[in-house]
Write a structure and sequence with these properties.
With about 130 residues, the chain is mainly α. It has 5 helices and no strands. It has helices spanning about 5-10, 15-20, 40-55, 60-70, 75-125. The longest helix is centred in the last third of the chain and has 47 residues, at about 75-125. The termini are far apart.
């Protein structure tokens, strides 16, 4: 699969895809005899994984460390699991913080809605005149 096809499928730019490979967010991609990247389904899965983990808040360094550990094989299973558990705990804290922000916004919006109802009752009454 070409870089253009992967980019279209994943919704990223070629520069981003090349960056992911250069900094180790995805394993190296095989190249054709002429030096053109030839992506497999496994490569595309790695791109999706990297995008997901970045959205989850993993730093470039942390994700590159995970990929490096993965490439070392099953001897790193415990280290990879520990890394993911640590990142999950950090994400859970951020989600809880965002839930508090969301609740506060909901309360603020409800307050405005209540004020709108009162204003409408006072100013937009039906008149039989």
């Amino acid at each position: 699969m070409t870089i253009a096809e992967v980019c279209k499928r994943c919704g990223i730019t070629p520069d981003t895809l090349r960056y992911y490979e250069r900094v180790g967010l995805i394993p190296p991609v095989a190249k054709t005899a002429s030096g053109i990247r030839n992506y497999t389904e496994t490569d595309v899965n790695w791109v999706g994984f990297a995008m997901c983990m970045r959205r989850a808040g993993l730093s470039v360094e942390t994700l590159a460390k995970y990929v490096a550990l993965f490439r070392q094989g099953d001897a790193t299973l415990a280290a990879r699991k520990r890394l993911l558990e640590e990142q999950r705990a950090l994400l859970a804290v951020r989600v809880a913080e965002q839930q508090k922000v969301l609740a506060r916004l909901d309360a603020k919006i409800a307050n405005y809605e209540a004020k709108c109802v009162v204003w409408e009752r006072e100013h937009l009454r039906h008149s039989d005149d």
